[in-house]
Design goal:
The protein is an alpha/beta fold. Helix content is 45%, strand content 19%. It contains eleven helices and ten strands. It has helices spanning 33-37, 44-66, 85-102, 111-122, 162-172, 179-187, 212-227, 234-260, 275-288, 297-300, 304-316; strands at residues 2-7, 12-19, 23-31, 75-81, 106-110, 130-135, 140-147, 150-156, 264-268, 291-293. A hairpin with a 3-residue loop joins strand 2 and strand 3. Helix 4 crosses helix 11 (304-316). The structure holds 5'-O-[(R)-(carboxyoxy)(hydroxy)phosphoryl]adenosine and zinc ion. 5'-O-[(R)-(carboxyoxy)(hydroxy)phosphoryl]adenosine is lined by residues 10, 136-138, 163, 166-167, 178-181, 184, 269-271, 273-274, 301-302.
């Protein structure tokens, strides 16, 4: 079975072709990062226009690289939420047009579920059930995965996502967008215990997150140093901030794993590329006796292949969309 998948929810235009849901034949990613970098973050209107320009050439490249044609595809998967509405609409419109023209079934994919499914691509033997921590630029969620089409959201952030905090702090420190990889690199050279930042909601069995207080505390620290005319050590700030985020993510994930009786723990989303998170989670999993999985770096951030993997398992279950499929910017993961 062949899947063609499209991803245009934020600032990456991507198309992929998969065989039997778990073998990547092509995964073409055109990033808009250099364009948005000039503005310090993603400009939604510019993102939509870039997607319009790139979506068809990227689809062609994905099919050509796979050595297949649209006629060979069994279905077309596309991200329809969550994300930027204008950006999502481009992918959804392209997928609907191809689905109609080539008479191929359409599958509407939740972007966050796609992130989780990236792990099935990196780990051929991985199967549900497991606990997933999804940490991206827009979301922070703990999700119980009982089967390929059966999920329960255990908790999510009340305010900022983890990635959002990384990006904002890096920006104030003068580093270019996206800030996560910059903080990650700085943190490796800093002292994680140099500054104590606050942790929120860390009572037992509270699976919700809040990163806005931490973000404000770091920004306050930077401003205070500036007002005093005192230099701050960027490496120590990055290391101390990252440690606070990582400790919170690991602590809550371990708590949730014990609570639901999980045996496997999976991380996903852009922030799962963070080296501090990977190291701390691997260590905690070893101590707790859990098997630990995370996608290879290219599959951590937005890509079409992860959407294709999710689409494949939806198609196997007959979960197709019709041509009324629309972009849903605030689409949630729901128990199904
Ligand atoms: O999943 P993703 O590609 O897009 C969304 O769905 O949001 O995640 C992007 C986020 C950005 O906030 C970026 O700064 C963060 O992932 N990120 C990282 C790292 N690489 C990407 N954060 C921390 N450490 C990293 N190495
Ligand atoms: Zn994403």
């Amino acid at each position: 079975m062949y899947t063609l998948a499209l991803e245009t929810s934020c600032d990456e235009t991507s198309a992929a072709v998969l065989r039997d849901g778990r073998t990547i034949l092509s995964n073409i990613i055109s990033t808009q990062v250099p364009i948005h970098r000039q503005f310090g973050g993603v400009v939604p209107e510019i993102a939509s226009r870039q997607h319009i320009e790139y979506v068809m050439p990227i689809i062609k490249e994905a099919l050509d690289t796979a050595g297949l044609t649209l006629a060979d595809m069994d279905h077309i998967g596309v991200t329809y939420g969550p994300g930027l509405v204008g950006a999502l609409l481009v992918g959804v419109a392209a997928a609907k047009a191809l689905s109609f023209a080539a008479d191929k079934p359409l599958v509407g994919v939740n972007h966050m579920e796609g992130h989780i499914f990236a792990n099935f691509l990196s780990h051929p033997d991985l199967e549900p059930p497991f606990l997933a921590l999804v940490v991206s630029g827009g979301h922070t969620q703990l999700v119980q995965i009982d089967g390929y089409n059966s999920f329960t959201l255990l908790g999510q952030t009340r305010d900022d996502a983890a990635g959002e905090a990384f990006d904002k702090i890096a920006r104030v420190m003068g580093y270019p967008y996206p800030g996560g990889p910059q903080i990650d690199a700085l943190a490796k050279k800093g002292n994680p215990d140099a500054i104590v930042f606050p942790k929120a909601l860390h009572e037992k069995h509270n699976f919700e997150f809040s990163f806005s207080g931490l973000k404000s505390a770091v920004l306050n620290y930077l401003h205070t140093q500036e007002q005093r005319g005192e230099a701050y050590n960027a490496e120590d700030v990055a290391a101390s901030f990252q440690k606070t985020v990582v400790d919170t993510l690991v602590e809550k994930t371990m708590d949730a794993a014990g609570y639901i009786g999980a045996q496997k723990i999976v991380v996903a989303g852009g922030v799962s590329a963070n080296s501090g998170l990977a190291a701390a989670m691997a260590q905690a999993c070893e101590k707790g006796g859990y098997a630990f999985y995370r996608p290879e770096p290219v599959l951590c951030t937005d890509n079409g292949a992860m959407i294709g993997c999710r689409a494949y398992y939806m198609a196997l279950d007959g979960r197709f969309a019709d041509l009324t499929l629309n972009a849903k910017p605030a689409l949630a993961i729901t128990s199904c």
